[in-house]
Each structure stands twice: as C-alpha cells, then as structure tokens.
Amino acid sequence: MNDWWLQLTFTVISAPLVEEYTFRGYIFGVLDNIFNQTATIWITSFIFSLIHLSSLGKAAWYNAVFLVVAYTANGNVLYLSRCCSTEYVGKFYCACSK
C-alpha cells in the first residue's frame, strides 16, 4: 500500500471517527449528565475549537458549534464522521435532519 493511501485513509476515515466519538460521543455525554444541553454545546465547542485553533483559526469555533448542534439534532456520531470525511475531500453533504 502506498503512503498516500495510508494518509488518505487516516485523514478521511480514522481521524473523523476518533474525533467525533471523543467529542460528541464521550465528552458530550459526560458533560450532558452534569450540565444542561445548552451549556454542554458551548463547552464542547470551546474545547474542540481550542484544540483546532492552530490549524483552522476562527473557523474552528464555527465548525465546532455546527457539529455539536448537528449531533444534538440527530444524535448520530457516525453521520457526523461522514460529514467530516466528505468535507476533507472537498464536498460537504451534511444536513441536520434524521
């Protein structure tokens, strides 16, 4: 397998899955048991944007808020991972409906 295939696989499949399960699956779930849903959205968005600040800049905050609101709307982490994957390859087919 060529190195570029490995990098593409990691970027398009592995990274979004791990990221979404960590932020929306685990962190969101833990904080949602402690705080109300609005506070949980803001806290997880803030943490997400801090981690991505160097690579995305201001877009990290908007991206974080969008993804956590989309997760709240449909509750499907795999769906969000697909959205991130398609965004990485230049297409974004994500909608917040079930």
The radius of gyration is 14 Å
Return the string of H and E elements: HHHH
The number of strands is 0
Total number of distinct structural domains: 1
Structural class assignment: mainly alpha
Mean pLDDT: 71
Give the helix level as a range of percent.
Answer: over 70%
Spatial separation of the terminal alpha carbons: 36 Å
Strand content: under 5%
> Which stretches are poorly predicted, pLDDT < 50 over at least 5 residues?
88-98
Global geometry: globular
Would you kindly provide a written description of the structure presented here, covering whatever features stand out?
This protein has helices spanning 3-34, 37-56, 59-74, 77-88. With 98 residues, it is mostly helical. The longest helix is centred in the first third of the chain and has 32 residues, at 3-34. Residues 88-98 have low confidence and may be disordered. Keywords: Hydrolase, Membrane, Metalloprotease, Protease, Transmembrane, Transmembrane helix. Its EC number is 3.4.-.-.
